[in-house]
């Protein structure tokens, strides 16, 4: 299989413009004859569904939530990047492109990343037009803050709830289309299969979570915007229902899965408090603008943080990276925190935490300003830990947060299955091996508002379609498969709950496929993970009925898919004998503990083809070409 | 700690529900309320019983999925938090906790603690937006919105759509939810052109969906996890009168 990225010819700043011009168009009066199914209604899905409906396409939108407004995009706190140079500090589209490519440790395509930077400004304008209440200054102009991995202020924000405000903006556009009938919204539907006819994606099969009915929906193109797979680790900052089922089942139907091992560990999360922990809570990266990260200079220091004098504290990021300081990219900050804790300098009851201290900022600008900037985050921290971060430093530790890998897509965001498009975190496209802060919102909305509406149209206009209805044998087959899996799960009648299996699996994933990875550990994971998967199918216990609301059955289906995906993540991590971005192989580091990339051998996208459960998948390579930015050792010193 | 839970169990929308008593042991004060229910649910499954159904997702107070009446209060004790942000340190050993779903005609129970809140989407569809389309926008800085206005609009926009306002209101009114959206868009220049239609249309759909009227009890503000102020209801009322008296 040859992976065609379909990057347009021409200079980088002209590629997207040329591509839009040479793309085929669907006449406005013909658009209503085409049906597009959009699965997932977070930032990417809601914006794509609304934009396509505005163009006149007939859109079916699906969510496992009761309302599009509940998607996990809503939890993004810090902000959204755009290369507008409002701050007059030397920003540009080219700099945003450069920073994103570098931040991703040169494992993304130049063409895609440039386009992302190019449309970033329009996203802000679009959101403003919708009434998104971005932070403003007293004269009324949009305000910016700085974020990790950049030396300019290009992050637009709405207090600590930027994701919420952007999602509500996209949701409002979607609600308007639901009202006009351009979008038919199907709530509480979980996609369980993608249906292929003549090799093309022609619809989906979904379970109605209110009554258990397995339903078929036909379409001319399908967009998956179903988010990432960080919950493979059980404990992550993702929402409880966030899952990989849609992309994994598409993968099993032939869509290649790219760079599955590229997972992002966010440096500033609230540490685990005990065995009951059900998920982790992130504290926005924006806190690192004013918070200083440190550990005591002596191991196992029992003193309260406020009793440790300045000269007995190690502000290790400021020490190791004088130019970026506390604002180094996420992967670097996370790894250094782990290193400090592993060496015995960790703080708090578990000793698996470092301090994030605001005392200096409070002294410098006053409590009121700090409150204004981060008030809701401080409140959130206090609710969870019962400690007041205005009086004592926060304790933070890294946690799995985002997955850069995902279904392989070409420049048109189309997977290896014709007609199956993938947007947002569900695809692998723009962040390489590490995503910079405030870039997830940018990418989700770029895909949905400004890329998919063109590329889906181009596909529809250039493809011949036979009429396919849901009585087609391919739908019946998919429904039967889905039913069979559900009944199989219901009938195991073992002894352990879904959560117990998921937690056990997550521990193996975190230990061996987490922040620091090595050959022996990954090989061990590849023997342990299949055992858990096999035990699950022999010993999982579900109660209730399949034809009813059944939250255990919902979880079981998702976990069953994670149990397969985790192995692929480990396999990908094992094969990639280099350290890059969020993928840190302990064998490949400098004497100073910095990641060592191997561009000669690994400057490619690893796209995996499913060959059966427990069978080794086939890897296909897409070589990355760098015409504009010469890959260099990332340095934030 | 050891606690007794009285949990509303209802198999289907049409079936009769009842409170069932469960004992939970070894509850850690650091657990969240929902984690305590997770632990109970694992025990129930192991005993071959059907676990308690409840909506939840982000577990950090922003998605608006979770919501239950805990000892008669929406989202339980404490101000400015959703159920998922409630921690067990707010209870003491030996407590009995009564857990019920949101109670409102507009929010029929689906199962146990899960209710159908799609009526809120229908109200949003009636005008909770600026009728803009993707593309063709002007630069964001051509619309100047001074900070105090942007901040006030944000205060309203912070609504998470959980429905606690309805559940805590003696009239099951959706007024605070509608006011939050109407007020946000009335404050911003982008929302000016549709002010009249928006407020009339959203309120009409609110009424159609069997939400009650507002009688200024302020229970909504007291229980709102985002502490949205009833002054937004005052602005909604002004918007409504303005719409009625201007042709």
Secondary-structure map:
The complex is a heterodimer of chains A (637) and B (247).
Chain A: H1 15-22, E1 35-39, H2 43-55, E2 58-62, E3 80-81, H3 93-103, H4 110-130, E4 144-146, E5 153-156, H5 162-180, E6 183-186, E7 189-197, E8 200-208, E9 214-218, E10 221-224, H6 245-252, E11 257-258, E12 263-269, E13 292-296, E14 313-314, H7 316-320, H8 330-342, E15 354-357, H9 359-365, H10 367-385, E16 394-403, E17 406-407, E18 420-422, H11 440-461, H12 473-492, H13 498-513, H14 519-539, H15 551-575, H16 599-602, E19 604-609, E20 618-623
Parallel strand pairs in A: 1-2, 1-10, 2-6, 10-18
Antiparallel strand pairs in A: 3-5, 4-5, 7-8, 8-9, 11-17, 11-19, 12-16, 13-14, 13-15, 15-16, 19-20
Chain B: E1 3-9, E2 18-24, H1 33-46, E3 69-70, E4 73-74, E5 96-100, E6 109-111, E7 114-115, H2 118-125, H3 147-157, H4 164-168, H5 175-187, H6 195-208, H7 219-223, H8 231-245
Parallel strand pairs in B: 1-5
Antiparallel strand pairs in B: 1-2, 3-4, 3-5, 6-7
